[in-house]
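Progress note, project year one: complex with zinc ion.
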Amino acid sequence: MTAEVACWCCGRSRPESGVVRLGSHPEVAVCLSCAHYLHQQARGREDALRPSPGARVRDVGRAIRRQVIQHGWQHKPVIGPVLRWLGSRMP
Ligand SMILES: [Zn+2]
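Model obtained:
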């Protein structure tokens, strides 16, 4: 049996294959969901520092994502799977 690792961000336990580790601090493990979240946060910071047409499009996408999550539409029976699929493919 493979030991599970606790994510340093959300605290959920995942197998080693379900986490990524920091380069200089390999003791820090972050689950893939949190790693994607952190990537999106980093992209948002970069977009704020360097406005561009692409950054504006991503801003609109992030605003739509916030609305979806705020209303819980990603959990709806019909539209939820589509929204989750789209969300996982957004930059
Ligand atoms: Zn996590």
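Residues 53-71 form the longest helix (19 residues).
The two ends are 35 Å apart (CA to CA).
No further modelling is planned for this target in the current period.
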